[in-house]
Amino acid sequence: MEQLFFVIFAGIALIGAVNLLLRRNPLYAALSLLTTMAALTGLYIMLKAYFIAVIQVIIYAGAIVVLFLFVIMLFNIRAVERQTDRRGYLKWLALPFAIILIGQFLYIVRLFEENPTPVGTEIGFTEAVGRKLFTAYLLPFELTSVLILAAIIGAVVLAQKE
Amino acid sequence: MDIALEAALKIAVILFIVLTFLAYLVLFERKILGWIQLRVGPNRVGPWGLLQPLADLLKFIAKEDVTPDTPNRVLFALAPALALVPPLMALAVIPFGSTIELFGRKIALQITDINVGLLYVFALGSLEVYGIILAGWSSNSKYSLLGGLRSAAQMISYELALTLSVAGVLIQAGTLSLSEIVHVQSGYYFGIIPRWHVFWYQPLGFIIFFIAAVAETNRVPFDLPEAESELVAGYHTEYSSIKFAMFFVGEYAAMFVVSALATTLFLGGWTGPGAERVPLLGVLYFSLKTGFFLFVYIWLRGTLPRFRYDQLMQFGWKVLVPMAFANIFISSALALWR
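ok -> structure tokens follow
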């Protein structure tokens, strides 16, 4: 049963991701991203990481993809479509990057085969995530918030110039 | 398998009751609006107009389903479903009452009690925007597109205040599970005042929550997405027949969910005198409290004019959000002090 659900969710996530790359229209690409995120949520729920699953929906589906859609709709979609840049040298960069990516992927798979993700523990629960964030990962957490603050200030400055 | 069967039955029963209730909510809305405007309201179909919802439903089904020249037919058909399904899914975590005994089994009057219940409701609420945005885009009409964009901007802005206003309750209750939040609120202060969050520590949070909730469900005085004088009917201008009905029911379902959530978070959910011993009394208290919020919704619609768009944004960002932050600050200080 569990395996069946895993295959379904993983399949949807992969189809969404591939579709995201193949679509010319940015609107459909954003919707494919949404599909992938929704499928990932299903995978998180199967790992019993409810907090992470719900946060995934709130942040990616509720905020980021909505923002994408907003930008795409406010600009003229056709104009954006035509501007797709087709610079030749990018093609030659693709191969080395693909090799690096596949290498990383294989490394991660090896890593997980040695110590698989614990299922049914409380790692993805609200309390556990909160405790980790405010003890072990306090510095990265605070640095991230400073980064976000800087980005907000930057956005305000850019908006005021117009 | 037993648990799955029980959950399936609960889903079926709750969906049936809530959808029937929503159909009658529309009738009551028309009645109450009629009384506010010194009219009688619908009274032709059945005694006291009680068969009106049925007639409305038949009309929606029988009408011609018009599809405009749309860039994508699938998205056009999908948008109403995306508006209707999230609020119905949110019903899964609402505690309608305590536990009852049926056929020798203890059955909780809540479909499932997940430990992130509150965040789950907000996650579904954040998905609500998609139905509206996609409807606006795929209708291929400027009224729809502008209505959709406006609505999305409004929902995103007020979602912020809505989420922040609840943080105070979380600080106080120390849990995200809705049934536990209800349990925290049982009992009385000084023997008479119920321990509801609205009376103690969270009155400000409650006010922000309810205002933001009215805006979030696109109702008067925040119903700019469908400002008929400027945008015809906003994002659902091009929709007809059953697809329009889905938007319509979706809006009322969202109102119900938000009212139920306000009851659960601030008015003690199903708690009340004698509710622990007689579970059905708890369901009655829950219905009365939720019904009160729904009545306020209709009341507002009958009495208030609509905001202007810039007023709406100013109010959301410059009044509600700072107030919500202040509320978090006060709640944290009180939590430390206790």
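Residues 2-337 of chain B form one domain.
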